[in-house]
UniProtKB/TrEMBL annotation:
This is Transport protein. Gene3D superfamilies: MFS general substrate transporter like domains. The lineage of its organism: Bacteria, Bacillati, Bacillota, Bacilli, Lactobacillales. The chain crosses the membrane at residues 7-27, 39-58, 79-102, 114-132, 144-162, 168-190, 211-232, 280-299. It comes from Lactococcus fujiensis JCM 16395. Its main location: membrane. GO terms for cellular component: plasma membrane.
């Protein structure tokens, strides 16, 4: 840190307003996922982007003497690591939002039981954290992130095909594996952010990284919520019709009133579509995890150094 520097109040305010506008806009979009790009979403997101553009002009006029100098993005490691952190926020935070709902709405678990099902993931994260420091020092960020990505995919993809009858012990094991991967994902990226920067720039670089982390997490929640809601909205009516036709043709329901058959068809369709929606959300997370591979190749590695 530079002890002679003063707090950049204007830059801090602009970054705070820009981040708030984007995050709030995404929240308004996910509130109405059937029309994600609704008026409030476009308004607040546009205002957030406009404030960031104003910050860019302000940074230029101040010759990079701001709370977050934009010339940092000329450094390969800083840019690649922040892109990876942003995507990791989407890939990790989205499923974190879905998992408790998955257990409650598709497996009919109570809130407490759903929370207990998440314990294996937390244990996996705790196991990974103490090993990260030595691994990063020995191999560099790139190999550690690539291994963590593989493990995270290994622990996330099974959720794409997990059904309402999948053994809960098996899901717990999958979440344990996922926890190990997620636990080793973001920290190596964060350490690589400071490579190529001067010591006095570390505090400013941390500010930018924190903003990007928060935006990534918000994007993750908004995108996953939008995907889940969109699948439910688009598939529910058709699935109700299919379930109703099957029940009407079933001999076991011939004696039931039509109203009772409709209620049973709606319940069956809702459960099937909800499961498909959560599976789609996990699939999006897997896709984003694959995207992280590309910026990861620009991170540091000690395997090719002598």
């Amino acid at each position: 840190m530079n002890p002679e520097s003063r707090l950049d109040w204007i830059g801090t305010l602009l970054l705070a307003l820009g981040s708030t506008g984007l995050i709030y806009g995404l929240m308004k979009g996910s509130d109405n996922a059937s029309h994600f790009f609704n008026s409030p979403m476009l308004l607040f997101s546009s205002l957030g982007l406009l404030v960031f553009i104003i910050y860019g002009i302000y940074n230029h006029l101040k010759d990079n003497e701001t709370v977050l100098p934009l010339h940092f993005f000329k450094v390969k490691n800083f840019t690649a690591a922040n892109i990876a952190v942003f995507l990791a926020g989407i890939a990790s935070n989205g499923p974190m939002l879905l998992l408790p709902l998955f257990f409650q709405n598709t497996r009919s678990l109570s809130t407490i039981d759903a929370a207990l099902m998440l314990i294996p993931q937390g244990i996996g994260m705790l196991i990974a954290r103490p090993l990260l420091g030595k691994a990063i020092d020995r191999f560099g960020a790139r190999p550690v992130v690539l291994v963590s990505l593989f493990i995270t995919l290994l622990g996330t993809f099974p959720l794409v095909i997990a059904g309402d009858s999948t053994n809960l012990y098996w899901i717990g094991l999958v979440l344990f594996v996922r926890g190990i991967g997620v636990g080793g994902l973001i920290m190596p990226m964060m350490t690589d952010i400071f490579i190529g920067l001067k010591s006095k720039d570390i505090a400013a670089a941390s500010v930018g990284n924190r903003i990007i982390q928060n935006l990534g997490s918000s994007f993750g929640s908004a995108i996953i919520s939008a995907v889940v809601t969109s699948v439910i909205t688009s598939q529910l009516a058709g699935q109700v019709t299919n379930s109703l036709n099957k029940l009407m043709n079933s001999t076991s329901t011939n004696s039931l009133p039509f109203t009772a058959i409709k209620v049973r068809a709606l319940a069956q369709a809702s459960k099937i579509v909800t499961l498909h929606a959560y599976q789609s959300g996990f699939a999006v997370s897997c896709f984003v995890l694959v995207l992280i591979i590309f910026p990861t190749f620009f991170l540091s590695s000690k395997l090719n150094t002598k």
